[in-house]
Amino acid sequence: MAERDLRLLGAWFSPFALRVQIALNLKGLDYEVVEETLNPKSELLLKSNPVHKKIPVFFHGDKVICESAIIVEYIDEVWSNNALSILPQNAYDRANARFWVSYIDDKWLTSLKSVLATEDDEAKKLHFEQAEEVLEKVEEVFNKCSEGKAYFGGDTIGFVDIGFGSFLSFIRVSENMNERKLLDETKHPGLTLWAETFAADPAVKGLLPETEKLVEFAKILQLKWAAAAAAK
Protein backbone atom coordinates (compact mmCIF):
# COMPACT_ATOMS: atom_id res chain seq x y z
CA MET A 1 0.00 0.00 0.00
CA ALA A 2 1.44 3.36 -1.00
CA GLU A 3 1.62 6.03 1.71
CA ARG A 4 3.04 9.47 1.19
CA ASP A 5 5.94 10.82 3.20
CA LEU A 6 6.91 7.82 5.30
CA ARG A 7 10.61 7.91 6.10
CA LEU A 8 12.78 5.99 8.53
CA LEU A 9 16.08 7.41 9.71
CA GLY A 10 18.12 4.39 10.75
CA ALA A 11 21.27 2.38 10.10
CA TRP A 12 21.79 -1.01 8.48
CA PHE A 13 23.18 -2.56 11.68
CA SER A 14 20.60 -1.17 14.10
CA PRO A 15 18.24 -3.73 15.67
CA PHE A 16 16.02 -0.84 16.73
CA ALA A 17 15.63 0.51 13.20
CA LEU A 18 14.96 -3.08 12.10
CA ARG A 19 11.95 -3.19 14.42
CA VAL A 20 10.37 -0.27 12.60
CA GLN A 21 11.02 -1.80 9.17
CA ILE A 22 9.37 -5.06 10.21
CA ALA A 23 6.32 -3.20 11.53
CA LEU A 24 6.02 -1.20 8.31
CA ASN A 25 6.33 -4.37 6.25
CA LEU A 26 3.69 -6.13 8.33
CA LYS A 27 1.31 -3.27 7.55
CA GLY A 28 2.16 -3.40 3.85
CA LEU A 29 3.39 0.20 3.75
CA ASP A 30 5.82 1.79 1.32
CA TYR A 31 8.52 3.86 2.98
CA GLU A 32 11.95 5.37 2.44
CA VAL A 33 14.96 4.39 4.53
CA VAL A 34 17.43 7.21 5.16
CA GLU A 35 20.80 5.82 6.23
CA GLU A 36 22.30 7.62 9.22
CA THR A 37 26.10 7.81 9.30
CA LEU A 38 26.33 8.54 13.08
CA ASN A 39 29.98 9.56 12.86
CA PRO A 40 29.42 12.43 12.92
CA LYS A 41 25.69 12.46 13.60
CA SER A 42 23.72 14.11 10.84
CA GLU A 43 21.91 17.40 11.18
CA LEU A 44 18.69 15.54 10.42
CA LEU A 45 19.19 13.26 13.44
CA LEU A 46 20.20 16.08 15.78
CA LYS A 47 17.24 18.17 14.69
CA SER A 48 14.63 15.40 14.71
CA ASN A 49 15.72 13.75 17.98
CA PRO A 50 17.39 16.53 19.99
CA VAL A 51 16.75 14.82 23.34
CA HIS A 52 18.48 11.44 22.86
CA LYS A 53 20.14 12.01 19.48
CA LYS A 54 19.60 8.34 18.62
CA ILE A 55 18.10 6.31 15.81
CA PRO A 56 15.56 5.26 14.78
CA VAL A 57 13.46 8.29 13.94
CA PHE A 58 10.22 7.86 12.02
CA PHE A 59 8.75 10.62 9.88
CA HIS A 60 5.05 10.51 9.02
CA GLY A 61 4.63 13.64 6.95
CA ASP A 62 5.51 16.47 9.33
CA LYS A 63 5.15 14.25 12.41
CA VAL A 64 8.34 12.95 14.05
CA ILE A 65 8.32 9.90 16.34
CA CYS A 66 11.33 8.51 18.25
CA GLU A 67 12.15 5.30 20.16
CA SER A 68 11.62 1.98 18.40
CA ALA A 69 8.92 0.48 20.64
CA ILE A 70 6.94 3.72 20.58
CA ILE A 71 7.24 3.92 16.79
CA VAL A 72 6.01 0.34 16.38
CA GLU A 73 2.99 1.09 18.56
CA TYR A 74 2.31 4.27 16.58
CA ILE A 75 2.39 2.36 13.30
CA ASP A 76 0.07 -0.28 14.70
CA GLU A 77 -2.45 2.31 15.87
CA VAL A 78 -2.38 4.63 12.85
CA TRP A 79 -2.69 1.79 10.34
CA SER A 80 -4.99 -0.35 12.45
CA ASN A 81 -6.99 -1.37 9.38
CA ASN A 82 -3.91 -2.68 7.57
CA ALA A 83 -3.51 -6.43 8.03
CA LEU A 84 -3.45 -7.82 11.58
CA SER A 85 -2.64 -5.99 14.80
CA ILE A 86 0.93 -6.05 16.06
CA LEU A 87 -0.10 -5.56 19.68
CA PRO A 88 -2.75 -7.77 21.28
CA GLN A 89 -6.32 -6.48 21.33
CA ASN A 90 -6.80 -7.45 24.97
CA ALA A 91 -5.57 -4.76 27.41
CA TYR A 92 -3.96 -7.27 29.78
CA ASP A 93 -2.15 -9.07 26.96
CA ARG A 94 -1.03 -5.70 25.60
CA ALA A 95 0.43 -4.74 28.97
CA ASN A 96 2.26 -8.08 29.16
CA ALA A 97 3.70 -7.63 25.67
CA ARG A 98 5.02 -4.18 26.62
CA PHE A 99 6.52 -5.61 29.80
CA TRP A 100 8.45 -8.31 27.98
CA VAL A 101 9.77 -5.96 25.31
CA SER A 102 10.98 -3.69 28.12
CA TYR A 103 12.59 -6.72 29.78
CA ILE A 104 14.32 -7.66 26.52
CA ASP A 105 15.64 -4.13 26.06
CA ASP A 106 16.92 -4.05 29.63
CA LYS A 107 18.20 -7.53 30.48
CA TRP A 108 18.87 -9.09 27.08
CA LEU A 109 20.50 -6.08 25.43
CA THR A 110 22.74 -5.56 28.46
CA SER A 111 23.79 -9.22 28.54
CA LEU A 112 24.45 -9.42 24.82
CA LYS A 113 26.50 -6.22 24.79
CA SER A 114 28.55 -7.45 27.75
CA VAL A 115 29.34 -10.71 25.93
CA LEU A 116 30.52 -8.78 22.88
CA ALA A 117 32.41 -6.08 24.78
CA THR A 118 34.31 -8.19 27.32
CA GLU A 119 37.75 -9.57 26.46
CA ASP A 120 38.60 -11.12 29.83
CA ASP A 121 37.82 -14.85 29.69
CA GLU A 122 36.44 -15.13 33.22
CA ALA A 123 34.25 -12.07 32.83
CA LYS A 124 33.05 -13.29 29.44
CA LYS A 125 32.11 -16.65 30.95
CA LEU A 126 30.01 -14.86 33.56
CA HIS A 127 28.30 -12.71 30.93
CA PHE A 128 27.51 -15.78 28.83
CA GLU A 129 25.88 -17.39 31.86
CA GLN A 130 23.82 -14.26 32.45
CA ALA A 131 22.76 -14.18 28.80
CA GLU A 132 21.77 -17.85 28.99
CA GLU A 133 19.63 -17.13 32.06
CA VAL A 134 17.79 -14.42 30.13
CA LEU A 135 17.30 -16.80 27.20
CA GLU A 136 15.83 -19.41 29.53
CA LYS A 137 13.29 -16.84 30.70
CA VAL A 138 12.47 -15.78 27.13
CA GLU A 139 12.04 -19.46 26.18
CA GLU A 140 9.60 -19.82 29.06
CA VAL A 141 7.70 -16.71 27.94
CA PHE A 142 7.56 -17.96 24.35
CA ASN A 143 6.12 -21.32 25.37
CA LYS A 144 3.46 -19.60 27.46
CA CYS A 145 2.51 -16.80 25.06
CA SER A 146 2.61 -18.77 21.81
CA GLU A 147 0.31 -21.53 23.08
CA GLY A 148 1.95 -23.95 20.66
CA LYS A 149 1.77 -21.59 17.68
CA ALA A 150 4.59 -20.13 15.59
CA TYR A 151 5.09 -16.76 17.28
CA PHE A 152 4.94 -15.04 20.64
CA GLY A 153 1.88 -13.33 19.21
CA GLY A 154 0.26 -16.58 18.05
CA ASP A 155 -0.16 -17.26 14.35
CA THR A 156 1.44 -13.99 13.23
CA ILE A 157 4.36 -11.79 14.24
CA GLY A 158 3.53 -9.57 17.20
CA PHE A 159 5.12 -6.96 19.44
CA VAL A 160 7.35 -9.34 21.43
CA ASP A 161 8.44 -11.14 18.25
CA ILE A 162 9.64 -7.85 16.83
CA GLY A 163 11.29 -6.84 20.10
CA PHE A 164 13.34 -10.02 20.48
CA GLY A 165 13.71 -10.90 16.81
CA SER A 166 15.49 -7.65 16.07
CA PHE A 167 18.51 -9.05 17.96
CA LEU A 168 18.80 -12.33 16.04
CA SER A 169 21.70 -11.15 13.90
CA PHE A 170 23.68 -10.02 16.94
CA ILE A 171 23.09 -13.41 18.56
CA ARG A 172 24.68 -15.01 15.50
CA VAL A 173 27.54 -12.51 15.67
CA SER A 174 28.21 -13.34 19.31
CA GLU A 175 28.18 -17.06 18.54
CA ASN A 176 30.51 -16.53 15.58
CA MET A 177 33.03 -14.39 17.45
CA ASN A 178 33.10 -16.51 20.61
CA GLU A 179 32.64 -19.97 19.05
CA ARG A 180 29.96 -20.71 21.61
CA LYS A 181 26.26 -21.22 21.09
CA LEU A 182 23.79 -18.91 22.76
CA LEU A 183 20.59 -20.06 21.12
CA ASP A 184 20.82 -23.80 21.64
CA GLU A 185 18.20 -26.17 20.23
CA THR A 186 18.62 -28.48 23.23
CA LYS A 187 18.17 -25.75 25.84
CA HIS A 188 15.87 -23.51 23.82
CA PRO A 189 13.93 -25.73 21.39
CA GLY A 190 11.01 -23.33 21.14
CA LEU A 191 13.13 -20.26 20.44
CA THR A 192 15.35 -22.11 17.98
CA LEU A 193 12.38 -23.09 15.83
CA TRP A 194 10.82 -19.67 16.32
CA ALA A 195 14.01 -17.96 15.10
CA GLU A 196 13.96 -19.93 11.84
CA THR A 197 10.28 -19.15 11.29
CA PHE A 198 10.73 -15.47 12.15
CA ALA A 199 13.70 -14.98 9.81
CA ALA A 200 11.81 -16.62 6.93
CA ASP A 201 8.66 -14.51 7.36
CA PRO A 202 7.99 -12.25 4.33
CA ALA A 203 7.99 -9.17 6.59
CA VAL A 204 11.49 -10.03 7.86
CA LYS A 205 13.21 -11.92 5.05
CA GLY A 206 15.98 -9.86 3.50
CA LEU A 207 16.13 -7.36 6.37
CA LEU A 208 18.44 -9.17 8.80
CA PRO A 209 22.05 -7.99 8.31
CA GLU A 210 24.56 -10.51 6.97
CA THR A 211 26.46 -12.14 9.82
CA GLU A 212 29.91 -11.67 8.24
CA LYS A 213 29.31 -7.96 7.65
CA LEU A 214 27.97 -7.50 11.16
CA VAL A 215 30.96 -9.35 12.65
CA GLU A 216 33.30 -6.80 11.08
CA PHE A 217 31.16 -3.99 12.46
CA ALA A 218 31.16 -5.62 15.91
CA LYS A 219 34.97 -5.73 15.87
CA ILE A 220 35.00 -1.97 15.33
CA LEU A 221 32.59 -1.58 18.24
CA GLN A 222 34.87 -3.69 20.44
CA LEU A 223 37.79 -1.36 19.72
CA LYS A 224 35.68 1.67 20.59
CA TRP A 225 34.44 0.09 23.82
CA ALA A 226 38.00 -0.90 24.79
CA ALA A 227 39.26 2.63 24.12
CA ALA A 228 36.43 4.12 26.16
CA ALA A 229 37.13 1.73 29.05
CA ALA A 230 40.85 2.56 28.98
CA ALA A 231 40.11 6.28 29.05
CA LYS A 232 38.17 6.02 32.33
TrEMBL record:
It is found in: Cytoplasm, Cytosol. Residues 4-83 form the GST N-terminal domain. It is an enzyme of class 2 (transferase). CDD domains: GST_C_Tau, GST_N_Tau. Residues 90-217 form the GST C-terminal domain. Coiled coil: none annotated. SUPFAM superfamilies: GST C-terminal domain-like (SSF47616), Thioredoxin-like (SSF52833). Belongs to the GST superfamily. Tau family. This is Glutathione S-transferase.
